[in-house]
Amino acid sequence: MLPAYPYLILSAVLFTTGTLGVLIRRNPIIMFMSIELMLNAANLAFITFARYQQSMDGHVFVFIVMTVAAAEVAVGLGIIVAIFRLRGNINVDELDEMKG
Amino acid sequence: MLVQYLPFLILFIVAVAFSGGAILLSRLLGPKRPNPVKLAPYESGMVPIGGTRRPFHIRYYLVAMLFILFDIEIIFLYPWAVIYLTARAARLFLLLEMIVFLGVLMIGYIYIWRKGALDWE
Amino acid sequence: MIAELVIFIILGIVAVSSAFAVILSKNPVYAVLFLVINFFALAMLYLVLSAQFVAFIQILVYAGAIMVLFLFVVMLLNLTGAIESLQDKLPAQRWLAPALGMVLLVEIAVVFLSGFFAQVPEASELPEGFGTSAPVGMLLFSRYVLPFEVTSAVLLIAMVGSIVLAKRRP
After folding, report:
1. Quick check: A59 and C46 in contact, CB under 8 A?
2. Of residues A67, A77, A78, nearest to B72 (C-beta)
3. B75 and C61 in contact by Cβ < 8 A?
4. Chain C CA closest to residue B5
5. What is the pLDDT of residues B93-110, one digit of tens each?
6. Domains in chain B: how many in total?
7. Which of A13, A94, B83, B100 has its CA 20 to 30 A from that of B54?
8. What is the full DSSP assignment across C80-122?
């Protein structure tokens, strides 16, 4: 059995990739997918710690995270679709009307 | 632990090799005599009308979204059903938990129904 | 040991390269498909870490349901790459983002080197049935009852919200 840190390094690299995706891309769907990448990186860390601490609480957390991710995707993509129907495009840089 | 999943891995490899091999072999061995009719997309014998990159209707999206939410609900039912068989003392508690969970989701279900999100027209 | 190392390296390469393909591909359809590959690689890693139930839930929920919804929205909006060519309001972000990403990675590396993970115990033999659905359910329905019930409220709100957002008003 490998030690824990290769898995944790992989999780950190995936999380950083997701952060980069959110910052670099302007397509809201791909930004959304990058958020999913970050959630999955966190899930990998949860599962790794669950394995090495021999407690299954991490698995339950992953369960809850997946549920929240599904709810978030349903509402978030709903918002993207609603914006698209309202304005005809979904450029995130144009969505700045809520400035104070 | 890992050895337990060896049949699973073998099945996966066989599936990938079989489907990939079928595509590769037919590309290598099959004769190629293309003409415009053969290259047209197959539409059950109809002559295709318009392009394929037409946007979907929003109805499909609504159905897919509700599917995901109820899919998650089913995922929670599965471990519940597994432990319900073996639990003896806590059965009533387990049952109540699940009734509350499903009750809250049933409110959402009734809302969806009343809003007509399940009607196709 | 060697087998696990080989599997980890293969899956790690697949996961990282597909993650980069997600954030770099021009066509959102390809990005969705690369994300599915990424989720499969992670599910295999969960299997290696003996989280069998979570691994199959991952494939069922993420690769099976959530990515289908993503594909639907990509097809629904049908903006293949058109949006990215628009004028960027914050051009500095393109150069700042990798720098900040490196800072994040270095930060995590510092945590590694500071000996935090010396506290993580070595791998040892697992109890029988670790990672199967029954122990997950035991925890979920006893110690974590409250998160479980709150989850139902989250799902209810998501249902109502998505109907409000997507349903055409008469």
Report:
1. no
2. A67
3. yes
4. C47
5. 889 989 999 999 999 999
6. 1
7. A94
8. -SGGGGSPPS-TTHHHHHHHHHHHHHHHHHHHHHTTGGGGSPP
Residue B121 lies in a domain: no
Count residue pairs from B and C with Cβ separation < 8 A: 118
Distance CA A6, CA C12 (A): 9
Any idea what DSSP says for residue A64? H
Name the DSSP class of B3.
G
- pLDDT recorded at residue A79: 87
User: Measured between alpha carbons, how far is A96 from A91 in angstroms, rounded to an integer?
Assistant: 10
Rg over CA atoms, chain B: 25
CB distance A42 to A11 below 8 Å:
yes
| Count of beta carbons in the 10 Å neighbourhood of residue A59 | 28
Among B71, B65, B43, A35, smallest CA distance to C76 is for: B65
Q: Report the alpha-carbon distance of residue C161 to residue B54 in Å, rounded.
A: 27
CATH top class, domain C1-79: mainly alpha
Q: Quote ipTM for the complex.
A: 0.89
CATH architecture, domain A5-91: Orthogonal Bundle (1.10)
Residue in C8, C39, C51 closest to A40 by CB: C39
Q: Give the domain ranges of chain C.
A: 1-79, 132-170
- pLDDT band at B47, cuts 50/70/90? confident
Rounded to 10 degrees, what is the CA torsion of C25, C30, C33, C35?
A: 20
Please indicate whether, in this complex, the C-beta atoms of C22 and A63 are within 8 angstroms of each other. no
The pTM for the full model equals 0.85
Collapsed DSSP state (helix, strand, coil) of residue B46: strand
CA C118 and chain centroid, separation: 26
Specify the CATH number for the domain of residue B10: 1.20.58.1610
In B, minimum Cα distance to A85 occurs at B58
CB C47 within 8 A of CB A58: no
Q: Which domain holds residue B87?
A: 3-115
- R_g of chain C computed on alpha carbons: 21
Distances (CA, A) of C114 to A22, B112, C19, C109, C121: 29, 52, 28, 9, 16
Return the CA Rg of chain A: 17
What is the SS3 assignment for B43? Answer: strand
